[in-house]
Structure formats: structure tokens, C-alpha cells
């Protein structure tokens, strides 16, 4: 609810029931008007362009009506109502000076003491509440497990079906993770793998990865996940200059493991949005190409920061370890959570299948479920 509103031709000032105040520009309000001539009432898409709004747009009148804001715009003589709850959710008149590497409010970082979130295969597929909770865990923590699933090849595709679509790559709709002779990728050997994000040589990178266990009787081969956002923040806290170097200059990544494929990308190891939000990690020693975009006089400092980030990631206290059993799987946000594998012996068998998907589908499904069941999302 709003208490009152004042205005001049360029700005409306409001006071909410809790005493907080906010200002909104005339052009912003007109561009975001909620009337059916401005936005389609069915899908919410805007029906006008910025050029359709008069350059001389101004506030002709503004008042509180029934607790909401009612604005009349000149020269259109158009009156639009803005619900107080909508205005409160879209306030931009606030201190927006945040530290470099700040995180979205919906993200919680973790280290090795964290208990891996998990959902039950049957419940997640049959119960909307269980599915929503599992998707929410992936969104908040960057990974989650699924247990007690089938062991039929291709079952991982049913995991992707929970929220979206498989992103097919040169590896196909999905790929096999087991020992091969003359492998095209070190993932297909029994060697241990340092914690890494997958496919940093793609642009855009696949934003989700699913790994599904079909057989696992080999000694070793435990999976480890590391929160790359926690690692990056640790680096920032102890070496702000090094953090800025890894965020400020692009690294290079390349993959040429099979005939007809030469993938290259030029992106920073630590990716920030223009306002400093931490939005991505690309870290993969196997796929790093020579760094040639860092100035000569900063290269040694860049490598010092790179080494330290690797040390933080490799710290056992950072990783959550688990051994997948047949029918178990886990999903990681490939822009945030690194995954590793301990080496395993030739005795027994270890067969996983993996695929990629995209986070926008998962976040869309989760948001739609929360809208449909708002009481359950609280």
C-alpha cells in the first residue's frame, strides 16, 4: 500500500506504508505501463517501442487511489494504475554501489562441510512440490543429486526432461564416460581430473551438466564438486588485485580432440556483469590455450592469481565428495560449480553417461511453478 505521492513533470515520489520512499522517472513509468495498450495482457510482452513514447513525456497528475499509484501522462492524456506491490518489487531508487563480485540474493555459497542436496527420482517425477524443491536447490546451490533412478542407458535424458531440453554438441545428445582406448578426451580414462567447468572452449558455454551413473564397481572414481563462486570470493578477499586481473582480462580455451572439430573461446576465468555481479567461472586446465590478452607487465601477476585460484579450488576443505551408485545422478550449474573425479583402477567397471542442458529452462520452470503455487514457494 502507498501512503501518498507527489510529482513534478519528470518524477513521481511515493511513500510506502512501511515508511520507505522511492522515486520513479516519467519515462520509466510510461515505458513500463501495465495497461493493455502497452503490454499484452496474455503474455506480458510490450506492444510499443521506445520510439512510440513522446520524447517530451511528462507527469500530468499523480495520486494514490485505493493504495496504488495512478499516473496521468502528458501529452498523451493517458492514465495508468501501478499497483503498490509491483512498484515495491521494481524500485531502482536505491544505493547500487556494490562490491565487485557481489552475488544475486538467491545464491548461497558453500564449502566441503555442505551436505549435498538430493531428490528422489520417483518423487521428483511425480510430485510437483518435490520437483520444485529439487529445482530450487540447483538454482540456489548450483548442484543437486537424484537418487534411486533406473539404470537403463539414456535415463539421464529424463532428468533434462524435468525442466527443459538437452543441448546437443559434437559429443552428441549425450556422451559415455568410461575408459576408452585412444580416448578423444581425458574424461574417458581412469585418470583423476582436477575440478573444472566443462567446455569452456564453447561460446556460449553449456550452462548445466548432468552426469548419470549406470555402473560403478571400480575402486575409486569418487565425484567431487566445488563451489566456484566461493573460491572466487575467497580469492577476492585475500587478493583483490588478482581477482580483478582474472575478471578483467580474457583467458583462452581450445579443444581439437576429434576430426573436424576446433572449438575456441576467449572469455575471462571470472566473469562479472557490468555492475560487478559474479555470474560465471571458467576453469579448466586441460583446455586452456596460451593467454595472449594480458599485458606484458601484468602477466606474472595474472599467473600468480591463477595459481592461487587453483590452490583454493584444490583445497580438500572446499570440495564435497560422493561416489555415485547405479541409478544416481547429479546436475551442476556449469557456470558456477566445478566438478572433479578421483582416479580409479582398471578392476571393476565404471560407466556414467553425461549430457548438457541450459539453465534458462530450469529457471523458467522453477519460476513458473512458483507463480502457480506462490504459497508453497514462501
TrEMBL record:
Keyword annotations: Dioxygenase, Iron, Metal-binding, Oxidoreductase
GO BP, sorted A to Z: carnitine biosynthetic process
Domain TauD/TfdA-like stretches: 114-356
EC number: 1.14.11.1
EC class name: oxidoreductase
Cofactor: Fe(2+); L-ascorbate
GO molecular function terms attached to this record: gamma-butyrobetaine dioxygenase activity; iron ion binding
Keyword Oxidoreductase set for record: yes
InterPro entries assigned to the protein according to its UniProt record, in alphabetical order: AlphaKG_dependent_hydroxylases (IPR050411), GBBH-like (IPR012775), GBBH-like_N (IPR010376), GBBH-like_N_sf (IPR038492), TauD-like_sf (IPR042098), TauD/TfdA-like (IPR003819)
Superkingdom classification of source: Bacteria
Transmembrane segments: none
Ranges of residues in domain Gamma-butyrobetaine hydroxylase-like N-terminal: 7-87
Matching CDD domains: CAS_like
Family, as annotated: Belongs to the gamma-BBH/TMLD family.
Protein's name in the database: Gamma-butyrobetaine dioxygenase
Source organism per UniProt: Ruegeria arenilitoris
Amino acid at each position: 500500500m502507498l501512503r501518498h505521492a507527489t510529482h513534478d513533470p519528470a518524477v513521481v515520489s511515493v511513500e510506502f506504508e512501511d515508511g520507505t520512499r522511492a522515486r520513479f522517472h516519467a519515462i520509466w513509468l510510461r515505458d513500463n505501463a501495465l495497461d493493455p495498450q502497452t503490454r499484452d495482457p496474455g503474455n506480458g510482452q510490450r506492444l510499443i517501442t521506445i520510439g512510440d513514447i513522446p520524447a517530451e513525456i511528462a507527469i500530468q497528475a499523480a495520486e494514490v487511489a485505493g493504495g496504488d499509484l495512478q499516473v496521468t501522462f502528458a501529452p498523451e492524456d493517458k492514465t495508468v494504475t501501478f499497483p503498490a506491490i509491483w512498484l515495491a518489487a521494481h524500485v531502482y531508487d536505491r544505493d547500487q554501489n556494490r562490491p565487485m563480485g557481489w552475488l544475486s540474493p538467491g545464491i548461497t555459497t558453500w564449502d566441503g562441510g555442505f551436505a549435498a542436496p538430493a531428490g528422489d527420482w520417483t518423487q521428483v517425477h511425480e510430485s510437483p512440490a518435490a520437483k520444485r524443491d529439487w529445482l530450487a536447490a540447483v538454482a540456489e546451490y548450483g548442484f543437486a543429486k537424484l537418487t534411486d533412478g533406473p539404470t537403463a542407458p539414456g535415463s539421464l535424458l529424463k532428468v533434462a526432461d524435468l525442466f527443459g531440453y538437452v543441448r546437443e554438441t559434437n559429443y552428441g545428445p549425450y556422451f559415455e564416460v568410461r575408459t576408452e582406448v585412444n580416448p578423444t578426451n581425458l574424461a574417458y580414462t581412469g585418470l583423476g581430473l582436477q575440478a573444472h567447468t566443462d567446455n569452456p572452449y564453447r561460446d556460449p558455454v553449456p550452462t548445466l551438466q548432468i552426469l548419470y551413473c549406470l555402473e560403478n564397481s571400480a575402486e575409486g572414481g569418487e565425484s567431487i564438486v566445488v563451489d566456484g563462486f566461493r573460491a572466487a570470493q575467497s580469492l577476492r578477499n585475500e587478493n583483490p588485485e588478482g581477482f580483478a586481473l582474472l575478471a578483467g582480462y580474457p583467458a583462452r580455451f581450445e579443444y581439437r580432440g576429434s576430426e573436424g572439430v576446433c572449438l575456441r573461446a576467449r572469455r575471462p576465468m571470472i566473469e562479472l556483469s557490468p555492475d560487478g555481479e559474479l555470474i560465471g567461472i571458467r576453469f579448466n586446465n586441460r583446455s586452456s590455450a596460451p593467454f595472449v590478452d594480458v599485458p606484458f607487465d601484468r602477466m606474472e601477476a595474472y599467473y600468480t592469481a591463477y595459481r592461487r585460484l587453483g590452490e583454493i579450488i584444490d583445497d580438500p576443505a572446499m570440495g564435497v565428495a560422493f561416489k555415485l551408485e547405479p541409478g544416481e545422478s547429479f546436475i551442476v550449474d556449469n557456470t558456477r560449480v566445478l566438478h572433479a573425479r578421483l582416479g580409479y583402477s582398471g578392476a571393476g567397471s565404471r560407466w556414467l553417461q553425461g549430457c548438457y542442458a541450459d539453465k534458462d529452462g530450469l529457471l523458467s520452470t522453477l519460476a513458473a511453478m512458483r507463480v502457480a503455487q506462490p504459497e508453497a514457494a514462501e
